[in-house]
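Example for tutorial group B:
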């Protein structure tokens, strides 16, 4: 690792994951990059490319309004526009750093846009499946158009046994990284549209 330059931002995320299993980063993406991704999300949503999100994976999929209410659009990296490619380039750089410093063995990734309409939510859950435990780290990057006020709701709540619930508000440009197979979490009901990119860094499925 002689040619690996120390990245203080990445090191902070790694330290957080080691110490508390999640990390909150408010400057991972530039403001312009967040604006561009927001515009890309809105364009796709206006074109009715989004679909109602479901529960489970391709082997066990069930649309359940009582559990989650967001609409999503899976981003095909091979067809990514220039705004999305900037996103993927940064995620790849971060992933390579993790693999070289922490030996996580991350080999795959998947991301989608997510839009929560007013009064929607996502009940408490874990980001892994009974027949697929390849998701290692969950990432959420918020694309809202202004600083998010507490009265808007929509906070991400992370649950840790024996500790106080962790409430994270979806501030513009904020990114949250947490361990997919360990931390249960939910999205509280929103009072205005809530926009994000959500995804997972994955090991190869056994």
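The residue assignment follows.
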């Amino acid at each position: 690792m002689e040619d690996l330059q120390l990245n203080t931002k990445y090191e902070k995320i790694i330290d957080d994951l080691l110490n508390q299993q999640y990390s909150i980063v408010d400057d991972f993406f530039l403001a312009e990059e967040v604006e561009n991704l927001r515009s890309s999300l809105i364009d796709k949503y206006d074109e009715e490319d989004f679909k109602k999100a479901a529960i489970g994976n391709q082997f066990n999929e069930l649309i359940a309004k009582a559990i989650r209410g967001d609409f999503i659009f899976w981003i095909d990296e091979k067809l990514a526009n220039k705004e999305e490619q900037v996103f993927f380039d940064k995620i790849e750089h971060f992933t390579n750093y993790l693999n070289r410093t922490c030996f996580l063995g991350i080999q795959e990734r998947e991301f989608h846009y997510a839009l929560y309409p007013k009064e929607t939510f996502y009940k408490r859950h874990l980001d892994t499946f009974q027949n697929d435990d390849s998701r290692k780290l969950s990432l959420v990057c918020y694309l809202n158009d202004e600083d998010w006020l507490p009265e808007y709701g929509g906070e991400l709540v992370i649950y840790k046994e024996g500790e106080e619930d962790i409430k994270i508000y979806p501030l513009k440009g904020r990114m949250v990284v947490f361990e997919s197979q360990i931390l249960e979490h939910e999205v509280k009901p929103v009072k205005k549209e809530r926009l994000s990119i959500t995804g997972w860094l994955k090991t190869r499925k056994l």
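The longest strand covers residues 108-116. Compare this with the pattern of hydrophobic and polar residues in the output above.
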